[in-house]
Specification:
The protein is an alpha/beta fold and 230 residues long. It has one domain: Vaccinia Virus protein VP39 (Rossmann fold). It has 9 helices and 9 strands. The strands form 2 sheets. Strands 3-2-1-4-5-7-6 form a 7-stranded mixed sheet, with helices on both faces. Strands 8-9 form a two-stranded antiparallel ribbon. A hairpin with a 5-residue loop joins strand 8 and strand 9. Helix 8 runs parallel beside helix 9. It is globular, with a radius of gyration of 18 Å. The termini are far apart. This is Ribosomal RNA small subunit methyltransferase G. It is found in: Cytoplasm. Keywords: Cytoplasm, Methyltransferase, rRNA processing, S-adenosyl-L-methionine, Transferase. Its EC number is 2.1.1.-. Belongs to the methyltransferase superfamily. RNA methyltransferase RsmG family.
């Protein structure tokens, strides 16, 4: 009966996004709605919108991630966007980076319960020892972590040249870009652009600020890989 109840609560959009892995996603939602609330990782008011606002919102980010990419999810918290991304895209090599011990414990339990092949690291992206330990990635993701300027400072160094920082943002994305463009450039990022993910599936697409990592020449001026110096 329990499996039938879970089955009946899976939205059609989830079946499109997760495909054959949708049952794992449903199990994650159940964990969030029960233990996640009990442990203060998810607010009680969020239970009714876990699928749309959190799980699907995170999973559609996979549209921007190349197959087989190495991904570092900064500030994973309750597991967003890293856990839904790992469920939808088992081809990815995902590192969940989280500084708080109780959240690391939660992420570890979720990964074991769902048999997800992810790496969980405790630490902060801005710490040099952490950067050395986890090395650079093809893609770095972040959701509800910090304003764009600070996020770029913390995360762009974790991105390999020509890789991308994908920051899940809300309605203020354009304003943040205007305000923090110079800070992004100083951190080693290229021109930020807004991308909508899940537009063909979700009623409200996910807003992502995508920033390509560029290389810095000897003068410290950011430049694209392969561009000649003048």
């Amino acid at each position: 009966m329990e499996s039938e109840r879970v089955e009946s609560t899976i939205p059609s959009e989830a079946r499109l996004v997760f495909g054959e892995h949708v049952e794992l996603a449903a199990e994650f939602v159940e964990l969030l709605a029960s233990h996640g609330v009990e442990r203060g990782l998810i607010g009680p008011r969020e239970v009714g919108r876990l699928w749309e606002r959190h799980v699907l919102n995170s999973a559609v980010l996979g549209e921007l991630v190349p197959r087989g990419a190495r991904v570092v999810d900064v500030g994973s918290g309750a597991g967003f966007p890293g856990i839904p991304l790992a469920i939808a895209r088992p081809d990815l090599d995902i590192v969940l980076l989280e500084p708080m011990a109780r959240r690391v414990e939660w992420l570890t339990e979720v990964a074991e319960t769902l048999s997800l092949s992810v790496t969980i690291e405790r630490g902060r992206a801005e710490e040099k020892v952490v950067r050395r330990r986890i090395d650079v990635a093809d893609v770095v993701t972040a959701r509800a972590v910090a304003p764009l300027a600070r996020l770029a400072e913390w995360c762009v160094p974790l991105v390999r040249p020509s890789g991308s920082l994908l920051a899940l943002k809300g309605q203020t994305a354009a304003e943040e870009i205007e305000r923090d463009r110079s800070a992004v450039r100083k951190a080693g990022g290229g021109e930020p652009r807004i991308v909508r993910c899940g537009a063909e599936v979700l009623e409200t697409p996910t807003t992502v600020v995508a920033i390509e990592r560029v290389e810095s020449g000897p003068s410290g001026v950011a430049r694209k890989r392969g561009r000649k110096k003048h």
